[in-house]
Amino acid sequence: MRMTSRMLPVLVFAFLASCNFPTPAIPAPSTPAPSQSATEEAGPAAIPSNTAAAPESTATATSAPTPTVKPKPGPIPHLADGTALAISHIDMIDALKGWSIGGSADTKLREHVFRTTDGGSAWIDVTPPELTAAQSDVSPIAVGAFWDADNALVTFHSTNLLPPPSAPVVWKTVDGGATWTQGAPLDLSGWEGEYRISDLFFININTAWVLAHKGDDPAADRIALFQTVNGGNAWQRMVDPSVDSPIQACEKTGILFTGPWNGWLTGDCRGNRAGVFLFQTFDGGKSWIEAKLPSPATPPGLFTSTDFSCRIRPPVFFAQKTNLVLCVECTSKTTPATAAYFFSSNLDGSNWHTMAYPGGQMVIRSAGDGRVFRGDVVSGLAVDKDIYVYNGATETWDTLGSIDWTGQFDFIDWNTGWAAARRGETPLLMHTKDGGRSWVELAPQTTAGSG
Question: Which of 84, 141, 221, 413 has most Cβ atoms within 10 angstroms of its Cβ?
Fold first, then answer.
């Protein structure tokens, strides 16, 4: 299947044309923050990741019925060796080493953090000692950012999406998950309603952001944005969800920072407004201004008429981290017509180029996930049920293959990639060695190891 491009972007062509296709442990390092307050100090001593919960006392009076004892929260227990796993997120550092989030294949929970050294078959449980929920039917959900094989940040929200009983923290490791330290609590003052984390990501070893959603407004997707500039020891709330601003409208689909100060926020207004939801910051996320995309010639009124509903896929870097890429998909409210376009620009949002796009998520075939880079970007794929690669010679998107599952993808180079996938309700961990043309299923399970 081929889709002829409308316009070939000059900046992206050079990239795409080649696509043929608890005792204290080692304390966390303290990095001075450029402009943080004196209260932003290093967290407490590191805690081993395999800390076990203290056993409950079972003694009861012999003359009275055994009372029902509500279990007390304790650290998330690590899974037994040999447990089959359901992986929900994967981030590989190289062909052998990487991280994942998931749980046992039986429960399909997402409360565990794992580390692999064999390419994804055997995983060591290195989950931070986050407390379990007091309710038996509620579990934590882990969200992580993984800089390299040693450095990672992890935080949690709960499956019932209620605010935690105490201020949440971001856990930090500098030794591959063997030990973890807590950063200063995230500021949830005045928080009511749902609490959900969608994004946690680095821009460098010291600077990272957490995007949290506050679900107390059915007409909006209110967010809070937290930033650290000292490696996760302290976090500043950059965006207050209780303060009305244009970014608090519409569902958020992604966030990307192209440097410590410049960032982009994308969304989906589900037809409630004309055009696209796109905002830009130049001060690390404190303030945001609306950004505009050039409207394609066809169909007429795509970004100006309320007859169309448009969403932007999560933004990514492209072409050796010099281009910003946005994939926009629009549907008509009155006809079955659909339209999808690929926009590329300099990182500051100037000089936009537009071309037709087959739809689906943009998957970067390089070390990193399109937000954190460990090397040059060499290729990208458009992935839905069909997988497309751009052919610079013919200026078309050529079909590379097809899949019958959906997934979160992670490549380390042109050929080698993984997908934390699902086929219906069945979790899968898929692996490719030929750039996405074919995939094999791995059988991930826990194994003993340090951490």
Answer: 221
**55 Cβ contact list (under 8 Å, min separation 6):** none
Instruction: Say if residues 344 and 323 touch (Cβ distance below 8 Å).
Output: yes
Domain covering 2-20+79-446: architecture:
7 Propeller (2.130)
Cα 389 from Cα 398, distance rounded (Å): 5
- The confidence score (pLDDT) of residue 134 equals 65
**What is the spatial distance between Cα 340 and Cα 380, in angstroms, rounded to a whole number?**
16
Give 66's pLDDT tier (boundaries 50, 70, 90): low
By C-alpha distance, which of 442, 431, 377 is closest to 16? 377
Answer for the pair 411, 361: CB distance below 8 angstroms, yes or no.
Answer: no
Q: Per this entry, what is the length of the chain?
A: 451
Cβ count within 10 A of residue 337? 11
| Residues 6 or more apart whose Cβ sits within 8 Å of residue 410 | 90, 91, 92, 98, 369, 417, 418, 419, 420
Average pLDDT of the residues of the chain:
83
Beta bridge partners of 115: 99, 124
CA separation for the pair 392, 405 (Å, rounded): 28
The pair of structure tokens assigned to 38 is 């004196």
- Beta strands (DSSP E) in 147-221 are 152-158, 171-173, 179-182, 194-202, 208-215
Residue that is written with structure tokens 């490549």 in the block: 411
Give the largest Cα separation in the chain, rounded.
Answer: 86
The token duo for 213 is 């959603």
Phi first, then psi, for residue 56 (nearest 5°) are -80, 145
Nearest Cα neighbor of 11 from 358, 297, 387, 350 is: 350
User: 4-34 pLDDT, tens per residue?
Assistant: 333 333 333 333 333 333 333 334 334 344 4
Counting DSSP H helices and E strands in the chain, the numbers are: 1, 32
Q: What is the pLDDT of residues 136-189, one digit of tens each?
A: 678 899 999 999 999 999 999 998 888 887 889 999 999 999 999 999 999 999
List, for residues 393-416, the tens digit of each pLDDT value.
777 899 999 999 999 999 998 899
d(CA 417, CA 422): 16
Determine contact, residues 153/144, Cβ cutoff 8 Å. Answer: yes
Asked if 102 and 122 count as a contact pair (C-beta separation under 8 A), the reply is: no
- Which residue from 61, 51, 186 is spatially nearest to 131, judged by alpha carbons? 51
Which residues are within 8 A (CB) of 234 and not within 5 positions of it... i.e. 6 or more apart? Answer: 33, 36, 39, 40, 41, 183, 184, 228
Phi first, then psi: what are they for 341, rounded to 5°? Answer: -135, 150
Sign of CA dihedral 379, 382, 387, 388: negative
Indicate the domain borders of the chain: 2-20+79-446
